[in-house]
Amino acid sequence: MSNTTKSPAARSEGGRNGSGDLGDGNKALAYSRVSAPAAIQCAWCEHVFDSSDEYLHGRVRCSQCGVATTNPWPSDAQLAEAYGDWYRPKSGRFSGLGDKVLHRLRAGLANRLHRVLPPGPVLDVGAGDGNLVEAFVRHGREAVGLEPYGSGPHIRQAEVEEVDGSWSAVIFWHSLEHVRHPARALSHATTLVAPGGKLIVAVPNATSMQARAFGDRWFALDLPRHLTHISPDALVSKIQEAGLQVESVSYYRGGQVVFGWVHGLVGLLPGHPDLYDVIRRSEAQSVEQSLAMRLYALGAGVAALPVALVASAIEVAARSGGTVCVEARRETAAE
Description:
Largest sheet: 7 strands, mixed
CATH topology of the domain at 8-36 and 73-254 and 323-329: Rossmann fold
Number of strands: 11
Strand content: 15-25%
Low-confidence stretches: 1-39
CATH class of the domain at 8-36 and 73-254 and 323-329: Alpha Beta
């Protein structure tokens, strides 16, 4: 596809009803305006679950594609509660320097991609706070972020399947696992990538060493917000099926690798402290944390860090890191 009379940003503003603004009354729609699957089935390949599938706590692993689907499947109201105002408050999510570090990491990602991408706009699917979009805009690029609860001049409340045009890059940065129909969203996203452009997808690695080590307490399980739990093989296969050339599969670029181990090790201690909740601002915590619990968890996290660093190095070397980041390119006509 190519841009005609309207820019990609203008086309992505409109939803099915002609407006990108869902309004506060529609927050229950969470990460999808598409209805949930009609049957208990794999959200990735749509295989209807039967006795051949693996039933785990809070999810079912599909015998056909290996992707796990959150079970029971959450309603829109349940997702609305899971993405309540506490989840991403305007004051920021993390205590201390946490938000500044997050901003710096997103800026670093934008800097790297800006150097290698062809000219053209960038689409960030699941833009969150908009940090990545803003970083691209600072480089002089047109950039649009899709975020159901977001707001701002570069943020649109629309789904990727409602977007058309030709984009230098389409990015799913820890967002694909949040959408109701991830394979469908990914397939449509591949059609938006311009010749020479890139698709970048980072998701938790559901088959990683840390996922196996911590099981139901794994940091990146994040029920019910994470609706699918994707393996690298399933992700790479889907991208290749769409005709894109996979250029790299990284087990450290997606981030959260070391923290996944620290969080898991701390969670094994008596009381099962939730380190992720502890490091968030009080208004961003799912459960209020006492001072004693915060000191306990933070001290345990510092003590666990050396072990986490070693474990992270081992799993990355084994190509089994806690996240996987796939970068793929659409070949140009000359190629």
